[in-house]
């Protein structure tokens, strides 16, 4: 059963198709993820390491930027991402 979905080869996130639990291991579609946080279905998980200030790429397009470093397997959501449409912060 598929647990995550990568929408574009250049994405650095994957969409969770099921609720994921801490410690869960996913090997699928060339990904090797150890889940670091509980992640609800429909939310995003980092499929690559993302450095603070880097773009969050979904559908091959930048949708925001990381407000802190995000490790592979971590939840990618409003606590560590600022959407570009809402951003008033300067990205360096």
Largest sheet: 4 strands, antiparallel
* Shape designation: globular
- The SSE string, one letter per element, is EEEEEEEEE
- Give the count of helical stretches: 0
CATH architecture: Roll
* CATH fold call: Archaeosine Trna-guanine Transglycosylase, Chain: A, domain 4
What is the percent of helical residues? under 10%
Number of strands: 9
- In round numbers, the mean pLDDT is 93
Q: What is the radius of gyration computed over CA atoms, rounded to a whole number of angstroms?
A: 13 Å
End-to-end distance, in Å?
40 Å
Point out poorly predicted stretches.
none
How many domains is the backbone divided into?
1
Structural class estimated from helices and strands: mainly beta
CATH class: Mainly Beta
Q: Looking across the biggest beta sheet, what order are the strands in?
A: 1-2-5-8
Question: Care to describe what's here?
Answer:
With 92 residues, the chain is an all-beta fold. The protein has a single domain, classed as Roll (Archaeosine Trna-guanine Transglycosylase, Chain: A, domain 4). The chain has no helices and nine strands. The protein has a four-stranded antiparallel beta sheet, with no helix packed on it. The chain has a three-stranded antiparallel beta sheet with strand order 6-7-9, with no helix packed on it. The protein has a two-stranded antiparallel ribbon with strand order 3-4. The radius of gyration is 13 Å and the shape is globular.
